[in-house]
Amino acid sequence: MYVRKVYTLVFLREDSRLLLGLKKRGFGINKWNGFGGKLEPEETVIDAAARELKEECCINAKASDLKHIGNLEFTFEGESTLMDVKVFTSKIFNGEPQETDEMRPRWFNIDALPFEEMWPDDRIWFPYMLNSKLFFAQFHYKGFDSILKYNIVELHSVQDLYKNH
Ligand SMILES: Nc1[nH]c(=O)nc2c1ncn2[C@H]1C[C@H](O)[C@@H](COP(=O)(O)OP(=O)(O)OP(=O)(O)O)O1
User: Which of 11, 33, 75, 88 to mutate for ligand 1's pocket (most ligand atoms within 8 Å of CB)?
Assistant: First the structure.
């Protein structure tokens, strides 16, 4: 049995650009990723997503403007934790991204994303996100660099995002 821990992950889109942040500390340090983290006690997933976005790059987005587009599950060989990552996107937000203690934000053209400096799984599930497909994916890692096995499926309705477990 795994111990499930929920995380949020938010990507902002503006025309053909995607906002990523270079993680400056903690889990995934030195990788480009969306903005997110753990839930606070009593917090809903969507409120946590909006809060983490604000904390990590100073952008305000209404929780209701964040679209839940996918679920990612990560397990690690020899470990009992399952990271349950809820992925959101939004085209509606306020403010200019600012660097914080945790993240250095930068806009990337979606044709020139820095996959070499991202989580290896991102190459697999980003095409779903970039093509506006809902998805569920599971990745089993050895360490943090090597994917031993994975599974990804397209979902056909938002309700399916809540049926996986
Ligand atoms: N394999 C992976 N691929 C990916 O694209 N995003 C991942 C990932 N594994 C984790 N993430 C995301 C989920 C979440 O947004 C973030 C990790 O959360 P946190 O920043 O909260 O972690 P930390 O341990 O640094 O937390 P704090 O110590 O509370 O700052 O990385």
Answer: 33
CA torsion 56→67→75→152, rounded to 10°? -140
Question: What is the pTM for the complete model shown?
Answer: 0.96
146 — alpha (psi -120 to 50), left (phi > 0) or beta? beta
Nearest ligand 1 atom to alpha carbon 37:
21
User: Which stretches of the chain score pLDDT less than 50?
Assistant: none
Q: How far apart are the first and last CA of the chain?
A: 13
- Output Rg (C-alpha) for the chain, integer angstroms: 15
Q: What is the CATH number of the domain that holds 124?
A: 3.90.79.10
Tally of structural domains, the chain: 1
Q: Is 39 in the pocket of ligand 1 (CB under 6 A)?
A: no
Predicted complex: ipTM over 0.90: yes
Give the number of the atom of ligand 1 that is nearest the alpha carbon of residue 38.
21
